[in-house]
Specification:
- The structure holds three protein chains of three kinds.
- Chain A is 82% helix and 0% strand.
- Chain A is mostly helical.
- Chain A is elongated, with a radius of gyration of 19 Å.
- By secondary structure, chain B is an all-alpha fold.
- Chain B contains nine helices and no strands.
- Chain C is of the alpha/beta class.
- Helices cover 31% and strands 25% of the residues of chain C.
- In chain C, the strands form two sheets. Chain C has a six-stranded mixed beta sheet with strand order 6-7-8-3-9-10, with helices on both faces. A four-stranded antiparallel beta sheet of chain C has the order 2-1-4-5, with helices on one face.
- The longest helix of chain C has 16 residues.
- The relative contact order of chain C is 0.20.
- The chains are: A mainly alpha, B mainly alpha, C alpha/beta.
- At the A-C interface, helix 1 and helix 4 of A face helix 2, strand 6, helix 3 and helix 4 of C.
Chain lengths: 235, 249, 218
């Protein structure tokens, strides 16, 4: 047998689990490019629907821009949440993740990192283009991007709890939206609030710091909650 | 030790059965007293006239809406740490009452808002966060009903309520923040005039009545939940009323 | 090595097993038998730590295991009904990926050797979605070949395998047992293992063969 006996330096450092899980999910997402683009395309299309529904009046569009961008970002993250665990749950990978040498909370953290890199980050990157359509100036666009960069990780984290809790449940995705959307409200308020206060000539720092605080405190607790939810779903 | 004894459904079931009439009676008496004070003793408000009297149900309902979620969060911690089945059953029993009080608070708020501010709904911080609280209740109820396996739905529900309860202060704070940012639409709920002592008394008595009602109703409901879940256990078959039913069918 | 002490589990209103106790020694296999739906998979999942028993506990080398604790995850290799393979990955990538999760340090040569032994060397670039069920199972065997974990929990491992595949599986398990490992295997086939194997038959209505009446097949 070609078994290599583990030596001290070969034994995994638990933190590597974050990287192992993240690399895995990113690689998988890259393989199915169509899926990767879906959230982004959805975001662009839905944002573009608003001027068509409301009319091309620039002042009004600019007025609603922060809310539109944030609601659409929130919905496109929501749309991709099932991807985080559903496939792994169906094909048995989730069991193997739970049984992996790496601690499950760290693997879940890795999955969340991958999810954010493939949804939140692209959304934040294209948001300025859409902001231009709504007549936002460069300072406001910067706040949009900063807010999305700080806020979408929170959307991913809270969403992961909902996605893990509703695994294998009938009508899971609607139920997940029902569980997750109320929890998204603070992010929506602070994110859109940051842009609005910039538009009003005020400082966006307060709102952005609150988003950052949410993201940081989420990183401490959420992986454990997600891991617990995964264990519940596998039981 | 004696308290832990009652964490077993088989010993809690008869205890709950004995307690229900007491709390039910208390709820009824307090409700009669509270409504009497509220509708007949308390003076008319010099600004709002008779309309204000809806606060005797509105304010207690709003209090209970928040309080019941807090109690559920407490049971969620118990359920997750001690893995007591009864804690999860209590959560399941409390949730509908919590949702009803939340809906009642919103409804009576709207009925009160129309004559006083001329609108049924204002995006006031308190109303908005109460609405979100209703969503949280509905989410919990939907989740535990969607999961067939009881063991799993118990744990999932407890985790959801715990995550929710961590978020409730954040949500409340963010909504207040949002409200101050959008000064235009805000309506002040706080009355400028001092509240008469009898009004306060009526409200407190009504709040107590709602509290007793919640206990009575959730104990009733938890008894039904216990019977449903333990229907194959021998102790359930030994209960006289169950036994009589079994003979009839 | 492994000991189950008075395990009790129910699903919904149905009791699967009650006060079930047994032990598996190093170098020994325990074959789980019983009709479909009797709880073989559930028992394996309890032993793996995925499912929590209602009562009782699993001991590893006389240490009580907390479900999915570090000690349990380091000891157990569980192959379930689902193969945990990705359609998007090739056979080799799937194996590499699983070993990465297992935190098994293996060289490329070792992986290719394992794939050769399970007869997938030529198919190593074939995408998971194009592999047959039997070939998917063989990737699981390749994972077993490279595994360092002492306790194997195999759920119907012969499913979809052809005769050669079953022989390969038997050989792999035997090798594991000879090296002092242990295995619990749920199967409805006769598994002519060379090493010592005991059988545990789960029956409906939670009437289970007690440990002292276990049939010694060898």
């Amino acid at each position: 047998m070609s078994v290599v006996l583990p030596t001290a330096e070969m034994l995994p450092t638990p933190e590597r689990g974050v990287w192992v899980a993240a690399a895995r999910d990113i690689k998988l997402a890259m393989r199915s490019k169509g899926e990767l683009a879906q959230a982004l395309v959805f975001f662009v299309i839905v944002v573009s629907l608003f001027p068509l529904a409301i009319g091309p009046e620039t002042a009004l569009l600019k007025r609603i821009a922060p809310g539109v961008v944030w609601v659409c970002a929130l919905l496109s993250v929501l749309l991709t949440l099932p991807r985080m665990f559903q496939q792994d749950y169906t094909d048995g990978t989730l069991e193997q993740l739970a049984l992996s040498r790496y601690p499950l909370p760290l693997l879940c953290a890795g999955k969340m990192v991958a999810h954010w890199l493939t949804t939140g980050l692209p959304v934040a990157v294209v948001a300025p283009l859409l902001g231009l359509q709504f007549g936002l100036d460069s300072r406001e666009l910067m706040v949009v991007v900063a807010g999305l960069l700080l806020g979408t990780p929170v959307l991913t984290m809270l969403g992961a709890v909902g996605a893990a809790l509703t695994l294998g449940v009938r009508g899971g995705s609607i139920l997940m939206a029902l569980l997750v959307l109320p929890l998204y409200i603070p992010v929506l308020i602070f994110g859109a609030g940051a842009v609005e206060s910039t538009m009003a000539g005020l400082d966006a720092v307060a709102n952005l710091s609150l988003l950052g605080a949410l993201a940081l405190s989420g990183m401490v607790g959420v992986p454990f909650a997600v891991a617990f939810a995964v264990k519940i779903s596998l039981d | 030790m004696s308290l832990f004894k009652y964490s077993a459904p088989s010993s809690f079931y008869p205890l709950a059965g004995r307690l229900v009439p007491w709390f039910g009676t208390l709820a009824f008496l307090l409700c009669v007293a509270g409504l009497y004070i509220g509708l007949f003793v308390a003076p008319e408000d010099f600004q709002q006239g008779e309309v204000y009297r809806i606060i005797f149900i509105h304010v207690p309902a709003a209090w209970m809406a928040m309080f019941i979620y807090l109690v559920m969060a407490f049971y969620a911690v118990l359920a997750l740490i001690y893995q007591t089945r009864l804690s999860s059953m209590m959560m399941e029993a409390l949730a509908p009452t919590g949702a009803i009080f939340t809906a009642l608070a919103l409804w009576t708020g709207a009925l009160w808002g129309r004559p006083t501010w001329g609108t049924y709904w204002a995006w006031d911080a308190r109303m908005t966060s109460t609405l979100i609280l209703l969503f949280l209740y509905v989410g919990y109820i939907a989740l535990i009903n969607a999961i067939e396996d009881k063991k799993r739905s118990d744990k999932a529900g407890a985790l959801l309520v715990l995550v929710g309860s961590v978020n409730v202060p954040i949500i409340y704070f963010s909504v207040k923040w949002w409200n101050t940012l959008h000064q235009g639409a805000s309506v002040s709920l706080t009355q400028g005039n001092k509240m008469a002592a009898t009004m306060l008394l009526g409200m407190l008595v009504m709040a107590l009545a709602c509290w007793m009602y919640t206990i009575a109703v959730s104990l009733c409901r938890v008894r039904a939940i216990i019977l449903e879940r333990e229907k194959n256990a021998q102790w359930v078959r030994n209960i006289r009323e169950v036994n009589d039913q079994l003979k009839v069918t | 090595m492994l000991e189950a002490r008075s395990l009790t589990l129910s699903r919904g209103e149905r009791s699967l097993f009650e006060a079930l106790s047994f032990a598996v020694d190093p170098g020994e296999a325990l074959i789980l038998r019983g009709p479909n739906g009797v709880g073989k998979t559930s028992l394996l999942r309890v032993l793996a730590g995925l499912t929590r028993a209602d009562a009782g506990a699993v001991f590893l080398n006389n240490l009580k295991l907390t479900p999915l604790s570090d000690a349990q995850r380091a000891a157990v290799l569980y192959l379930g009904h689902a193969n945990a393979l990705k359609d998007e990955y090739s056979a080799e990538e799937n194996l590499t990926d699983q070993l990465a999760l297992d935190a098994v340090a293996s060289s490329r040569e070792a992986r290719l050797d394992a794939l050769r032994r399970v007869g997938l060397l030529m198919q190593r670039h074939v995408a998971g979605r194009k592999l047959s069920q039997g070939q998917k199972r063989r990737i699981g065997i390749a994972r077993l070949l490279l595994s360092e974990r002492p306790l194997w929990l195999l759920d119907e491992p012969t499913n979809a395998l052809d005769q050669d595949g079953v022989a390969l599986l038997l050989q792999t398990v035997d090798q594991h047992l000879a090296g002092g490992g242990a295995a619990v295997v749920a199967t409805h086939l006769a598994l002519p293992l060379r090493g010592p194997a005991r059988e545990l038959t789960l029956q409906e209505n939670a009437v289970t063969t007690p440990v002292d009446r276990l049939a010694e097949t060898q």
